[in-house]
Amino acid sequence: MTDADLLRALGESPTTRRRFALLQAIAGAGSISQAAKAVGMSYKGAWDAIDALNNAADAPLVHRQTGGRRGGGTVLTARGTELLALYERLRAEQQAMATRIAESHAHAARDLPVLGRLTMLSSARNQLAGRVRAIDAGAVNDRIVIALAGGQPLVATITRESTRAMSLAPGTPVTALIKAPWLMLATLGDAGAGGCSAENQLDGVVRRIDRGAVNGEVVLELAGGQTLVAVVTIEAIERLGLARGGTARALFAAASVILVRLG
């Protein structure tokens, strides 16, 4: 395991590194086009990254200047310079920590990414860990096939720029986020389920049903032990005859899957 692998496992994603590398390049070049070229981003991708950074920060990090003898340029704000300096200091500390961990923990490569997933906070009830099996590239969107723990495939549709930003490739560990209301349920004997347009159709065993006044939560256990939670109406639960120990199929669109890369 390289130091770069350990740094990713400690919380620095490829996206984070590229964005701060872009800030470093802007600080040096004073031009977003030159900075984008230096870090291997498209001009649009660089501006998308800057927009994401500015939106996430408490104040803008990058300022676009206009006019002047040189026709303007792009510079870091005082806040951007301050945060970049802190990031560089933290990264140096992480580098030292990564080296110590690699030397003292025999299974750091295996265990650190798992810790990252365990501590991830998200409002999405469904968080499934897996590895990229295949990438079908498109002009705008890519189709990402993920192998789950039990071998069942899960498909996500994301933008081509997102695939590049996360440095996705076969074997890359990812976490798929799917909100519970986005799932539909069908019984395995439902003749219509096989002809459904939903690209994701995962079979499981009903482990729990929590009933409310109008809706209920149905927990399916997939092959390999991972679980999916679907929120459906009580009427649907009754109509489908769902009960603990029975089987059901979860259906959802590939566009409903959000991918996260932690390490």
Keywords:
263 residues, alpha+beta, five-stranded antiparallel sheet
How would you characterize this protein structure?
The strands form three sheets. A five-stranded antiparallel sheet has the order 5-4-3-6-12. A five-stranded antiparallel sheet has the order 7-11-8-9-10. A two-stranded antiparallel ribbon has the order 1-2. 37% of the residues lie in helices and 30% in strands. Strand 1 and strand 2 form a beta hairpin. The chain is built from eight helices and twelve strands. About 2% of the residues have low confidence. The protein is of the alpha+beta class.
Measure the end-to-end span: 12 Å
Largest sheet: 5 strands, antiparallel
Helix percentage: 25-40%
Average the pLDDT over all residues and give the rounded result.
Answer: 83
Low-confidence stretches: 67-71
Q: How big a fraction of the residues is strand?
A: 25-35%
Strand order, sheet with most strands:
5-4-3-6-12
Rg computed from alpha carbons, rounded to a whole number of angstroms:
22 Å
The coarse silhouette is elongated
**Total count of strands:** 12
Count of alpha/pi helices = 8
**Secondary-structure element order, N to C:** HHHHEEHHEEEHEEEEEHEE
- The secondary-structure class comes to alpha+beta
